[in-house]
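tool_call predict_complex ligand=calcium ion
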Amino acid sequence: MKVLIIEDERKTADYLCQGLTEQGWTVDVAHDGIDGQHLAVNYDFDVVVLDVMLPGLSGFDILRSMRAVKNTPVIMLTARDGVDDRINGLREGADDYLIKPFSFLELLARLQALTRRGRAQEQTLLRVGELSIDLIRRKVVRAGQRIELSAKEFALLELLARHQGEILTKTAIAEMVWDMNFDSNTNVVEVAIKRLRAKIDAPFTSALLHTIRGMGYVLEERDGA
Ligand code: CA
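tool_result ok
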């Protein structure tokens, strides 16, 4: 999941960024209205967290320019006494709002609800051979055995499973799971693949995660493998 946080209060923005990153989300942050609008309008996110009071442009200005071009879910952050803000926000097309101060878990629950709504038509359970991945409960099971994954391992497995049978290059994986431009000096993808393989393949009789030398990785069930 890719989220854009538009919030001028550095402490709040950093805290949200850290919390969501730990949950395996990919996070972009803008600290003022101009930057925020630029990112929100020109790039694709699964959800946007939008503060109302911002330097440059207000949250409402950003929401208006976003709504002219896209339907990305937006949750607005409003002041405790900002009743008008909440009404205006919903009228301008915000999907939800949170009153400051709010707990991180509350925000996370709302974000999950919004992104789930956006994906209502999508599959919530992916299957690759005897491996099943429940995207809502974030539960991975192979041959009846529950497998515990870290947030990044889960994101990596979800990506591979959504593209099962397709070869994904290291560059593509690095961009989509770590939001980084692949630097050939880092082995972050290899390390994560190795850890994932140790959990989803090593304890079982057949391999699902395959290395295609010089090309990348593919997740698929192979006959007689
Ligand atoms: Ca603010």
